[in-house]
Recover the amino acids of this structure.
């Protein structure tokens, strides 16, 4: 298995531009998570999906951020318009969620390093 | 979710056991203890988890005290590649959400 795949690995853009980050979860997994990591705030959960449905988006910082999961094998995180304070590493993770049973480990992708100038 | 406290950093000699402590005094009966680590410039990696019994896998051992208020992650023979930030997380499996704290930065030295 290739693991969780994220693209692009690096993105440099200018303030005001639209940014789209992409994620392909591990085949067979039914939960997908988007995290953001910065030096100041550490690793923060932005949103997660279960069976392609957004379950909790309380971590999404503001309306400029949106996430979609049109099918079980693809998700996007979009920032429009982007701002310099959005600069961070964005991780996607997936898991097979069985409910309150043993083994809900999440598998993380390599991340997308976003720089907004 | 119960909060955790842990040392911000630790050193360990290569080849020796690395013992990483974590306090979770407010843990409730249905909350699990999970450990992840993050090697520089990579995504976090799952290590091990447990509820109340000690657990061991190919990566590490997890020792949970009888009152479940603290735990220790043990890397039996630390290597340079084990240098990473280690996160102790307590949460309810049913919630399916992880809250990462500051972690313990482990430095394995030759």
């Amino acid at each position: 298995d290739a693991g969780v795949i994220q693209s692009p690995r690096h993105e440099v853009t200018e303030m005001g531009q639209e940014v789209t980050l992409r994620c392909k979860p591990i085949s067979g997994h039914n939960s997908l998570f988007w995290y953001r990591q910065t030096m100041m705030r550490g690793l923060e959960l932005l949103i997660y999906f279960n069976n392609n449905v957004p379950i909790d988006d309380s971590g999404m910082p503001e309306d400029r951020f949106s996430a979609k999961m049109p099918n079980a094998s693809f998700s996007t995180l979009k920032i429009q318009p982007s701002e310099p304070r959005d600069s961070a590493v964005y991780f996607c993770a997936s898991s097979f969620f069985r409910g309150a049973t043993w083994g809900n480990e999440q598998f993380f992708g390599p991340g997308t390093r976003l720089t907004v100038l | 979710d119960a909060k955790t406290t842990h040392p911000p950093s630790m050193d360990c000699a290569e080849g020796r056991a690395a013992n990483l402590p974590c306090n979770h005094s407010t843990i409730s009966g249905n909350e699990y203890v999970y450990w992840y680590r993050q090697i520089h410039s990579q995504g976090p990696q799952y290590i091990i988890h447990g509820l109340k019994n000690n657990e061991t896998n190919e990566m590490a051992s997890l020792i949970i005290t009888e009152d479940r208020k603290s735990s220790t992650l043990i890397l039996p023979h630390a290597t340079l590649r084990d240098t990473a930030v280690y996160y102790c997380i307590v949460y309810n499996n049913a919630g399916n959400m992880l809250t990462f704290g500051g972690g313990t930065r482990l430095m394995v030295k030759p």
About this structure: The CA atoms of residues 21 and 108 of chain A lie 15 Å apart. Chain A has a mean pLDDT of 93. Chain A touches chain B at residues 4, 31, 42-45, 48, 50, 55-56, 91, 93, 95, 97, 99-111 (CB under 8 Å).
